[in-house]
Specification:
The protein is α+β, with helices and mostly antiparallel strands. The protein contains 13 helices and 24 strands. The longest helix has 66 residues.
Length: 580
């Protein structure tokens, strides 16, 4: 500390603490250099990590090209649009044009139960006790007005059906009368003068005529188009207004029946018709069960098409008999699809999906929706192939561009040189060169017409090291017509284009590969730097402590000297006064 004056330690004019800080700062410069070096290493690690990502993307796209099935893929298209037809082809489907004529579509079998399974509106022709609000028609009657021959008739929900009949007669002056026939469960409107009855008007607000299935027929007599009584789907079967009896259910109301050999249990006191039909549909019987209110019947329909039957039987009780399924039911058989291909022999299929099981063409599946003739074109799936190749080119170019950017050394106008993060990494730069060589080289051992990328119309750019499709038509033609040769070029094991790239990239990406080793070396360097910084920081702390203690000692020594000087001064001053 030569040249540093400490005379002001006691007075406080000398800031020795700042001096200590300055001295420590000077001695800290090696740490700053180490931290700068570590920061550069971290940036280089990030650059290598990004290169690893790009290598991985390139490896993935190379692996995709190594799949030989890629180049045997097929597309199938229907020549006519808007038909609803569709088609698909497997890898081994023979490419070509297939003319398919469907003369009959496959349909489902239906078991239509007997009509009129519900009780009629009234047991007799007297409907004075049938209230509009509770009348068991399929469609509930709404209050409002309806018209006959231009005369309005008002309907109240509290009216009986006979009340409405009386209103019709009154409104039309007795020209039109209405009556109910319990035997047919229908209503008839009759014109007493044989004139045509005209129903309805645009201002009607009640659906009475629709609910009773009455419609104009250009005559003087109109009768309901079908029976009017309807089953109640939401109440227990015992109260659902079914005409038939349930037979030998047990004392608790339990019974069972089978559909296509599947047993369906029910309870007439707790299950509604809606619940029962849903249970059949949800079972493994392979049918859908529904209630046709227009015909007042139950319908079972197979879920699959084809000429197959529907087997039903009562097991315990006679519910199916009461529903008219086993007594009076009629089976409407399903149909098989009938078709030809290229004008050949007829084929049949239980489904409208026509596959190799019926026509024998491997991998070809056609779904027909109309009885018509359509042309199915099967061709190489060049779009998927081309996408895979373009993905490889994109990832290859990404690697080349990235290494080029990270390896650049630039010089500004004022001769300032700037080196990118990997400018001094000759190994990484050699990888880019190796990849270009792999892409440019010929695949050995092939006998086909495709032996290098140039044979596919793919080559390097004239200005940089990136690949591009120079001749798209050449690539399309090769993919469409030389799929076997293209597959051999890309996917031949060990020696194929994709295999060579895969091997090279694996040697860099493996846990013990070159890229991992570089990153590991940098990580070790940073660990060593961290250790050096810790050691230097300890030394600086020791140095700070030594300097601080030294200055404190000097401060104490100077304080003692000052006190002695003051004592001596006081002594001499006292002696001088005594002599005087």
């Amino acid at each position: 500390m030569a040249g540093i004056s400490v005379s002001g330690l006691i007075s406080g004019s000398f800031d020795w603490k700042s001096v200590v800080d300055q001295l420590i700062q000077i001695d800290s410069q090696p740490i700053a250099r180490l931290q700068t070096e570590e920061s550069g290493n971290i940036d280089r690690l990030a650059a290598l990590a990004m290169l690893k990502t790009k290598f991985t993307d390139l490896q993935t796209s190379a692996t995709a090209l190594s799949d030989s099935s890629l180049f045997s893929g097929r597309t199938a298209s229907v020549s006519a649009t808007g038909t609803g037809w569709s088609a698909s082809a497997a890898q081994d489907t023979v490419a070509g044009s297939y003319t398919v004529n469907v003369s009959q579509l496959a349909t489902t079998a239906r078991l239509n139960g007997a009509s009129t399974i519900s009780s009629s509106l009234s047991a007799t022709n007297d409907v004075s006790g049938v209230t509009i609000a509770t009348m068991p028609t399929a469609k509930t009657v709404t209050a409002g007005n309806f018209s006959i021959n231009g005369h309005q008739i008002a309907v109240e929900l509290t009216d009986s059906l006979q009340d409405v009949f009386d209103k019709i007669s009154t409104a039309t002056g007795g020209v039109v009368t209405a009556s109910y026939d319990s035997a047919s469960d229908k209503v008839t409107l009759a014109s007493n003068d044989a004139s045509e009855i005209i129903l309805g008007a645009s201002k009607d607000t009640s659906n009475f005529l629709f609910a009773l299935r009455l419609a104009n027929n250009a005559s003087g007599s109109i009768t309901s188009s079908s029976t009017l009584g309807s089953a109640n789907l939401s109440v227990p079967l015992a109260s659902a207004r079914l005409r038939g009896s349930f037979g030998a259910v047990d004392v608790d109301g339990n019974g069972a029946f089978t559909v296509n050999g599947v047993s369906i249990a029910y309870n007439v006191n707790t299950d509604s018709l809606s619940t029962l039909l849903a249970r059949v549909t949800a079972s493994s019987a392979g049918v859908t069960a529904s209630y046709d209110s227009s015909s007042d019947r139950v319908v079972f329909a197979n879920t699959s098409t084809g000429d197959t039957g529907i087997g039903v039987a009562d097991t315990t009780g006679s519910l199916l008999s009461a529903l008219g399924v086993t007594t009076g039911g009629t089976l409407q058989r399903g149909k098989d699809a009938v078709y030809t291909i290229n004008g050949g022999a007829s084929f049949t299929s239980r489904s409208n999906t026509l596959d190799a099981d019926s026509h024998g063409i491997t991998g070809l599946t056609i779904t027909a929706t109309t009885e018509s003739t359509q042309t199915i074109n099967v061709a190489a799936d060049t779009a998927t192939m081309k996408t895979a190749i373009q993905t490889f080119i994109t990832n290859f170019n990404a690697v080349q561009s990235y290494i080029d950017t990270q390896s650049k050394i630039t010089k500004t106008a004022d001769n300032k040189v700037t080196a990118a993060l990997l400018a001094n990494n000759r190994e990484v730069q050699s990888w880019a060169s190796n990849l270009r060589s792999l892409a440019f080289s010929q695949v050995t051992g092939l006998t086909g017409s495709i032996q290098r990328l140039a044979d596919l119309g793919i080559d390097f750019s004239s200005t940089d090291s990136t690949l591009s499709i120079k001749d798209s038509s050449k690539l399309d033609a090769a993919l469409a017509n030389k799929g076997t040769d293209v597959a051999a070029f890309f996917s031949t094991s060990t020696t194929g284009f994709a295999s060579k790239f895969g091997d090279f990239l694996s040697s860099k990406l493996d846990s013990s590969g070159a890229l991992a080793m570089q990153m590991d070396t940098i990580n070790k360097q940073n660990s060593n730097i961290d250790a050096q910084i810790v050691t230097l920081n300890k030394r600086l702390e020791q140095q700070r402590e030594l300097l601080t203690n030294a200055f404190l000692s000097m401060q104490n020594a100077q304080s003692q000297a000052q006190q002695q000087q003051t004592t001596l001064t006081n002594m001499f001053s006292t002696k001088s006064s005594s002599s005087s």
